[in-house]
Structures are given as structure tokens and as C-alpha cells.
User: What shape does this take?
Amino acid sequence: QVQPVESGGGLVQAGESLRLSCAPSGSFREIKSMGWYRQAPGKPREMVASITPGGNTNYASSAKDRLTISRTDANNTVHLRVDSLKPEDTAVYYCNVAVVLGNYKLLEAWGQGTQVTVSS
Assistant: This one.
């Protein structure tokens, strides 16, 4: 079973930066994509950023200038840096990965989520 494991959430002050990391545990042949979503209280889950093995990135237009997604291929880790944090960035951030399993089936998996709270 593949399970993304997230780290790096917490309580931060507005204006500060935060870095989240995620690595999928379990066995798989290859990673097709990795990304981050977030869900604020009372709102639907929304895409924040994603990255492919080739390094192609996609960002939410609402915060594109404050987001940087990157990956460390050596340990299959994806990182999300959010700069100039605002109270409206407060949400549970979820890691999402799409992997090819040993049986060549494509699996999409979600992490448990990590809480990010931005105080003003």
C-alpha cells in the first residue's frame, strides 16, 4: 500500500514562510506526479501545486507568486514552500501522489493532511 507521509505543518505568523515535505511510503515502480492540495474550514479542497518527474509545475493562480514546489528524486520527496503567509492560507494541506504499482496499475493516494495555521 502506498501512503504519502507529510511533514512541516504548524502555527506560523503572517508574513513568514513555511516548507512542507511529503514522501510516499510503500512499494511502486515509478511516480507519475506529486502535488499539494489544501482544504480550509467550510471550503472544498483545492489544488495548490503539482510537479511531474520531468519538472513541469502547475500552481494555483490565486497564490502562484508565493508558491514554490520542488522535488528530491533521490528519496522521492516533494516540497512545497509558501512565502508571505496570510491568514487565508490557514488550511489542512494534503499531499497527493500518482504512482505506477508493480502490477502496472496507476494508483492515486492521499496523505493524512498536515494543519497549517497562520496567525495575524
Observations:
- The two ends are 40 Å apart (CA to CA).
- The CA atoms of residues 94 and 113 lie 4 Å apart.
